[in-house]
Amino acid sequence: MSLLIKNGLVWLHEQEDYFKADILIKHSKIKEVRPVIEGEKGIPVLDVREGYILPGWIDCHTHLGIIEEATGKIGVDNNEISDPITPNLRAIDGVNPMDIAFKDAVRHGITTVMSGPGSDNPVGGLNMAFKTAGRIIDQMVIKNPVGLKIALGENPLTTYGADKKSPVTRMGTASLIRELFMQAQDYMSLKKADKVKKRDVKLEAVIPLLRGEIPLRAHAHRADDIITAVRIAEEFKIEKLVIEHGTEADLIADYLFEKKVAVALGPMLTPRIKMELRNRNYASALKLMDSGLTVALITDHPYNSIEQLRTIAILAVAEGLSPKDALKCLTVNPAEILGCDDRIGRIAEGYDADLVVYDQEPLSINAKVLQTIIDGRIVYSA
């Protein structure tokens, strides 16, 4: 797809202010960003009339298409609770791009999400990142997988412990995760020696993690659970750890900075219905960013609805987060966390042409999306 966007107020992540510019898109990529670009024959022109142009928003932790809206129980595919250890589950086998929430995503400028298994299992499965417009999920994928999901804290304990099945305790959860990783290490040694007689789908799924090819993505709210995730990652020499949710991450921000751990923070709009959420506060993003961490804001859709992503950033700004940092939490930072920052999250030459156009500054509560553009194609227009 090719398109020339004229007269936009463009936000570049390294600048505080917007500047007036045109954007030329060719073959679904950003070709040029300059104050004035002359039109070319055959390329359609979109005059946004000083609309605000930003990289399409990125939500790096959702269950979009896996927990479907308006379907009831039959559309809830996030937790395979027949077994607490399911590293072999793949998000791509569960995402339905016909879920009505995809329309909400593009209508509110969200162009990329991460979706994956839920948090009832100590080891949940493999996540992936994909665009929010399309009919065939395989054609929407940006990167698959983008991490292996583990879960610490209340969820595995209430799912299995209530029936006196393992895990019953936090120690039990950590032990199950270690056992799987140890088995995967042994399996890798057998493979190297050409002694594997039968492939193991669970252990095969862990190999990319232990080789450093994908990150460990740990569901953890409480500070002690976050530290357990760090401990396990270090024990198995896992190179990249992302804390998902991180309700109490701000209490140990200096420790996480030292360990080079990123935080996908949220959901922020839920009530404190679990003990783990009692320290939830809107100022967490400011504290984590001030400590030097890479932070992304998330909805955890559908626990916060996908269209509430920008609202979360507005609330963080109200607590003192700078507008520039708030925008980074929706663009460059989640792109980095997903390992896709060479393609998305910026308005720059060679990047995917994923853009959102607002009628006014996007952190104004009154701002409305005028257009959402994915791969150079206008997928929503007000």
UniProtKB/TrEMBL annotation:
Keyword field contains Hydrolase: yes
GO molecular function, one term: hydrolase activity, acting on carbon-nitrogen (but not peptide) bonds
Record's keyword annotation contains Hydrolase: yes
UniProt keyword list: Hydrolase
Highest rank taxon of the organism: Bacteria
Residue span, Amidohydrolase-related domain: 52-379
Pfam families, alphabetized: Amidohydro_1
Cited PANTHER family: ALPHA-D-RIBOSE 1-METHYLPHOSPHONATE 5-TRIPHOSPHATE DIPHOSPHATASE
UniProt name for this protein: Amidohydrolase
